[in-house]
Amino acid sequence: MNLFGRHFLTLKDFSREEIAYLLDLSAKLKADKKKGINGDRLKGKNIALLFEKPSTRTRCAFVVGARDEGAFPEYLGKDDIQLGHKESVADTARVLGRMFDGIEFRGFKHSTLEELAKYAGVPVWNGLTDEYHPTQILADLLTMKEHFGKVEGLNFVYIGDGRNNMANSLMIGMTKLGVNMTVLAPKTLWPLKELVDLCEGYAKTSGAKLTISEDIDAVKDADVIYTDVWVSMGEEDKAKERIELLKPYQVNIDLMNKTGKESTIFMHCLPAIKGYEVTEDVFESAKSVVFDEAENRMHTIKAVMVATLGKGDDK
Ligand code: CP
Ligand code: NVA
Predict the structure, then answer these.
(1) How many domains does the chain have?
(2) Which residues of this UniProt protein bind L-ornithine (predicted)?
(3) Residue span of the structural domain in which 104 resides
């Protein structure tokens, strides 16, 4: 498998086999790190980390992942550079592309990311946009694989804001890899039809089932219950209406019990606002694997950088 030189903008651009390869590479890099072995697969590479929005996990995953493999990360926050204000995105991309070997971008518009990718001339990686958060999905899939030994055939229920970057990206990733995906949300927050249609196609190919529902009973038989904040970065003005709308969709002990399976796990991309989308007792319970997911952000992001920029496993 050769992903050298590729951008990582959404999982739409990656086949099931390519995603599986990234997960295998992540597991190998994780095992190596646990043994105290770091590589030089990114030796001498300079990596720009552009952040219009704040971040704990993604920023630290890129920094640590890059350093572990010999690269030099440089953080460029929203007030540090002129991106989109005094200098166009295309010009910024061409300047950074002359100096850096790879560029991560976290921000608002997905089109900004696409423009960076168009002009940079080096791999561009999505660290989250309003529409997609694909590196998070790799971490989630790796966590599920570690926990269940496989992902294909699992029943995955995402509950909450069915229209945000997490819902969109989980739908793509799960249906591509043969995971039965349910989006459980009030109708006004259902995913957009165009993306549902696309994911129906992925599901058909992989043998998965995609369900969109507003009925809480849809959690029955879930192996994974996953939620995200009710108010994403950039939509703070919607807080009041979202809380009202999503209250019935809180992940609490009653909801976890409704799956009918003792083995159901709880997942969340974090940061979590406890008492809203999830109760403290579920978050802290033995069923919660949220910190495994958080750690796996680093191993999977490292794998994306190694595969697209470095000496991969088979190069
Ligand atoms: N899950 C995630 O992307 O976390 P951060 O916002 O802290 O990067
Ligand atoms: N939907 C959340 C994800 C955070 C990782 C947000 O965009 O704020």
Answers:
(1) 2
(2) 165, 228, 232-233
(3) 11-132+295-309
Out of 75, 297, 304, mutate this one to test ligand 1's pocket (max ligand atoms within 8 Å of CB): namely: 297
- Cβ 166 under 6 angstroms from ligand 2: yes
**Is 119 in the same domain as 234?**
no
Query: Domain check: are 200 and 279 in the same one?
Result: yes
55 touches ligand 1 (CB under 6 Å)? yes
Helix, strand or coil, per DSSP, at residue 94? helix
- The answer to whether residue 1 is domain-embedded is no
3-state helix, strand, coil in the chain (%, to 5): 45, 15, 40
pTM: 0.97
**E strand or H helix at 309, and its extent?**
helix 290-309
Would the pLDDT of 311 be above 90?
no
Same domain, 261 and 119: no
Please choose, from the candidates 130, 208, 143, 207, the residue with its C-alpha nearest in 3D space to the C-alpha of residue 171.
208
So which residues are the catalytic ones? 106, 133, 136, 228, 269, 297
Residues 144 and 90 in one domain: no
Residue 5 lies inside a defined structural domain of this protein: no
* Together in a domain, 282 and 144: yes
Residue 196: alpha-carbon gap to chain centroid: 18
The length of the chain in residues reads: 315
Please give the distance, rounded to the nearest whole angstrom, from the Cα atom of residue 232 to the centre of ligand 2: 5
Q: What is the pLDDT of residue 191?
A: 98
Dump pLDDT digits (tens) for 146-203.
Answer: 999 999 999 999 999 999 999 999 999 999 999 999 999 999 999 999 999 999 999 9
Q: Residue 142 belongs to a domain with what CATH number? A: 3.40.50.1370
